[in-house]
């Protein structure tokens, strides 16, 4: 008699309930960037080695992540309100 092998589990998707180190660094940067002299775009390039366009794409996705809201609800709420205000201004 042959023993039946247990089924191979499906690959796990990344856990969306936790933030990556980079995502936490982006939130921390947003919380403190205004304290630094100079251009935010330059600080983004220096800190993350990303174009400002790519950085804002990542940030916008992060603002929709429930884990980010749980991590820093005040900051994420403020950034969401700013995003909504800017979107309304562009539609006018």
TrEMBL record:
InterPro entries: DUF3263
Residue ranges, compositional bias (Pro residues): 1-11
Annotated Basic and acidic residues bias: 12-21
Domain of life: Bacteria
Protein name per UniProt: DUF3263 domain-containing protein
Region (Disordered): 1-21
């Amino acid at each position: 008699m042959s023993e039946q092998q247990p089924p191979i589990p499906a690959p796990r998707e990344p856990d969306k309930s936790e933030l990556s180190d980079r995502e936490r660094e982006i939130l921390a940067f947003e919380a403190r960037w205004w304290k630094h002299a100079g251009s935010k775009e330059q600080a983004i390039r220096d800190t993350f080695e990303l174009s400002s366009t790519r950085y804002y794409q990542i940030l916008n996705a992060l603002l929709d992540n429930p884990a980010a809201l749980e991590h820093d609800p005040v900051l994420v709420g403020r950034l969401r309100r700013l995003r909504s205000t800017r979107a309304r201004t562009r539609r006018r």
